[in-house]
């Protein structure tokens, strides 16, 4: 990202370390400031310290799952407008409908996306959110 | 004077004799007359006796005739009695047979694994022990009761079906509680729609099947989901490596990485097929249906597909409606998957010739028709019925290609049908296959998966 003054902050919540690493590498290289958490509880603590510009979260995780994270964010004045992209393999159609109802921007199924596509989606969502 | 005296005396005697004679004559006459009248009387009596004799002999003859008749009647009666006895014996035998049959039927009904109820004119007339067990209701608490006495109870919900206009039910599922799921069928006894002999309600316990089915589906779903995580890691790693994001790579290395990537994609495809099949069976397949431009959805799949076909050296043709068509309510991702599966299947088995895809819209009956015609290997007549079955692969296809899960068309069919569409095909071995599917436009005509 050519934006040198204020790099956009992205929080990734994902319990699968290898995926977390790959995404961090990919997004950092794109110029984003990436923070990571390995479960929902950790993710919420991170957001309490600093409000991110975008959240990428898995759904099935220990401690606190992705839906609980989203629900808590929607309750918080500070976090309710932060765009959310779900990255998960466990999506059931009912979950997609539920996520859409919660105002989630996108749902990426990991096996169907390359990290490059994730980057494109992140760019797209951040542009949409800043408009 | 003596003579005179004499003469006078004689005269007196003569007179006396004459008088006597006259008296005798009278007497004789009287006797004669009496005899004559007696004779007349005798004659009358004799005649009367003759008449009596005649009368008696006539009566005798009559009596004899009557006796003969009675005798004849008696033997007739004897015969009738014997015949009746025979009939009675037969009836008795039949009755015994019928009783034996009834006992047999009762034993079957009492020991039948399915619950059985017979409803006649809205009243329960038979309630077997299995039905008692299902509803924790003694036979005596059910038999003789009206169907509507059970409203609000699980039994009542089932019995309500017997009062519906369509009086027969085929395998409708009912969840009684967490541990009991019944499959209910109702059949008319005597005359398909009149139900003159009542309605037989058959309750088949499918709890175990359901549990096994759920476990199997859950197993596939979890297994598939668990497989997807490492597959994503492999996919992402290979993609970054091949993209030179973690250091420069040679062409040979890139080629190997690309091949591995494609193998991994195939694996992902198989896992997705399994996952989709499990979801279809779980009934959790379709997301909310949203209005879409169907022509656009088809274009997005068919245009890149055409390039793939041409890359294989085959001919490709695509026809689509020239005018705008109404929108359709679909789960776009799933309907795309169905189209993709149909196209992939066609390309997979076409080695020469080409593929023609055409999309048309018919105002009457307001539906789209997608046709995919190929000049591939086709499918033999005897295997045609199974083309949409799960895990089915044509024997000719197996010989040619080992790849393929046999789930693609099963999934496609389920998606199309869940959108209210129809899917079918025509095929000739060695000449090719044409597959058709329709999709109703303007609101959802079809049913959704639960």
Automatic annotation (TrEMBL), chain A:
State the UniProt keywords alphabetically: Phosphoprotein
Provide the GO biological process annotations.
Answer: phosphorelay signal transduction system
- Give the matching InterPro entries: Bact_response_regulator (IPR050595), CheY-like_superfamily (IPR011006), Sig_transdc_resp-reg_receiver (IPR001789)
Superkingdom as given in the UniProt entry: Bacteria
Q: What residues bear 4-aspartylphosphate in this entry? A: 58
Q: Which CDD domains does this one have? A: REC
Q: What is this protein called?
A: Response regulator
Automatic annotation (TrEMBL), chain B:
EC number of the protein: 2.7.13.3
The Histidine kinase domain sits at: 222-443
Q: Molecular function terms in GO for this entry?
A: phosphoprotein phosphatase activity; phosphorelay sensor kinase activity
UniProt cross-references to SUPFAM superfamilies, sorted A to Z: ATPase domain of HSP90 chaperone/DNA topoisomerase II/histidine kinase, Homodimeric domain of signal transducing histidine kinase
Keyword Nucleotide-binding annotated:
no
Q: Which residues form a coiled coil?
A: 60-108
Instruction: Kindly state which reaction or reactions the protein catalyses.
Output: ATP + protein L-histidine = ADP + protein N-phospho-L-histidine
For the keyword Kinase, the answer is yes
Which InterPro entries does the entry mention? Answer: BphY/WalK/GraS-like, HATPase_C_sf, HATPase_dom, His_kinase_dom, HisK_dim/P_dom, HisK_dim/P_sf, Sig_transdc_His_kin-like_C
Keywords (alphabetical) are: Coiled coil, Kinase, Phosphoprotein, Transferase, Two-component regulatory system
The superkingdom listed in its UniProt entry is: Bacteria
What name has this protein been given in UniProt?
histidine kinase
Lineage of source species: Bacteria, Candidatus Gribaldobacteria
